[in-house]
TrEMBL record:
Residue spans of biased composition, Polar residues class: 35-46
Source organism phylogeny: Eukaryota, Viridiplantae, Streptophyta, Embryophyta, Tracheophyta
Positions of the Survival protein SurE-like phosphatase/nucleotidase domain: 60-251
Keyword Transferase: no
Name this polypeptide is given: Survival protein SurE-like phosphatase/nucleotidase domain-containing protein
GO-annotated molecular function: metal ion binding; nucleotidase activity
Record InterPro entries: SurE, SurE-like_Pase/nucleotidase, SurE-like_sf
Gene name in the database record: LOC110801045
Keyword Cytoplasm set for record: no
Record-stated family: Belongs to the SurE nucleotidase family.
Keywords annotated in UniProt: Hydrolase, Metal-binding
Region called Disordered, residue ranges: 27-49
């Protein structure tokens, strides 16, 4: 489906202009903060006003798919706190859950622990990004249930095309949309042996203007209500060509299953909570599984998976090992308005995400109109 919106990309110098305006505003705020007060009573009044202001600041919930210790989330939270405009809350997975899709942890207990994150109220969750957002919006963890905006990211690796279905960071934003809360997911097109951690910092500066504008327009009631926004930032954020409203493409990576051996992965013993997970699996084994092992007294034989095994003994249980890898494919015949094409052309791709399996044209147009008006106003 194509959108009727034309000229749906921003001028090449838009991001640098927005960042310069942002830096000027920060300098002005810092100058104001150094003005002296004339008496202690004035100081007390200032403290009171600060506390009152904290209560009225918009609440932003931040989650991600890469895990709470990922630098993308850390830099984003630091920048939002430094802005001084929001009350920032964080509820993110304890471990990397970047390919968990819209998975939830049902019927099991998850652990939630507070985390020190300067200027923000933060928790790590032993679950998925969807668990994190659902828990945060439930009112069971925080004293509120409806932040003004949910931001999911910044994750390493794009979520274009069919990757949206696998993506945990997109699922976090989608879950917020299900809960009736405006949301944005942000991913950086991270490339192995090419990208650096400083690119994540640059991605934050690209993201801040759209977050700030989203908060402003949510307050004014003009932010699109029927969709979330998936923001895909190109590999070199500082040299991007501007924003471009896109549609989700049919592009997908190749899912490659590699036959392997357990002996080839000594790192597994170093994985956090692996022992606990294995023990949990043992406790949760079904009665049917137990019966299967008891009948026939079959011998469990572990073989190295290097190809098709020969005819097995019916009294033997053969165990194999496989590992899944995503391999990027070439962009053949990809639409110019698609997310992956815009991203590879060095644009920041902004893709509306609908809860409907088919993107309604009015949603696409509304989202495109908002992107255009939001950033033209900032020039």
């Amino acid at each position: 489906m194509t959108t009727s919106v034309k000229n749906n990309f921003m001028p090449p110098n838009l991001i640098s202009n927005l960042n310069q305006a942002l830096l000027r505003r920060k300098d002005a705020e810092q100058d104001e903060s150094f003005k002296p007060t004339s008496s202690s009573s004035q100081s007390e009044d200032v403290n009171f006003n600060v506390e009152d202001e904290e209560c009225t600041k918009p609440k932003i919930l931040v989650t991600n798919g890469d895990g709470i210790e990922s630098p993308g989330l850390t830099y984003l939270v630091e920048a939002l706190v430094k802005e001084g405009l929001y009350n920032v809350f964080v509820c993110a997975p304890q471990m990397d859950k970047s390919s968990s899709g819209h998975g939830v942890t049902f019927g099991e207990t998850i652990d939630v622990s507070s985390v020190e994150m300067s200027g923000a109220t933060a928790f790590e969750v032993s679950g998925t990004p969807v668990d994190c957002v659902s828990l945060a919006l439930s009112g069971a963890l925080f004293s509120w249930s409806k932040p003004m905006l949910v931001v999911s990211g910044i994750n390493k690796g794009s979520s274009c095309g069919h990757n949206m279905f696998y993506s945990g960071v997109v699922a976090g934003a989608r879950e917020a949309l299900i809960g009736g809360v405006p949301s944005i997911s942000i991913s950086l097109n991270w490339k192995k042996d090419e990208s650096q951690e400083t690119d994540l910092k640059d991605a934050v500066f690209v993201s801040l203007p759209i977050i700030n504008t989203a908060i402003r327009d949510i307050e004014n009631g003009v932010f699109p209500k029927k969709c979330a926004l998936s923001i895909q930032i190109p590999t070199s954020p500082s040299t991007n060509k501007g924003f471009k409203v896109t549609k989700q493409s049919l592009w997908r990576p190749t899912l490659c299953w590699q036959a392997t051996s357990a002996k080839r992965h000594p790192y597994m013993s170093n994985q956090p909570c692996l022992g606990f997970q294995l023990a949990q699996l043992g406790r949760d084994a079904s009665a049917a599984g137990a019966a299967r092992h008891l009948t026939g007294q079959k011998k469990n034989v572990e073989i190295e998976s290097v190809g098709l095994a020969g005819k097995s003994n019916p009294k033997q249980v053969v165990k194999k090992h496989f590992r899944l890898e995503f391999i990027d494919k070439e962009l053949d015949g990809v639409d110019e308005d698609s997310d992956i094409k815009a991203l590879e052309s060095n644009f920041v791709a902004v893709t509306p995400i609908s809860l409907s399996p088919y993107m309604e044209s009015d949603i696409q147009i509304a989202a495109a109109d908002w992107i255009m008006s939001a950033f033209i106003d900032n020039q």
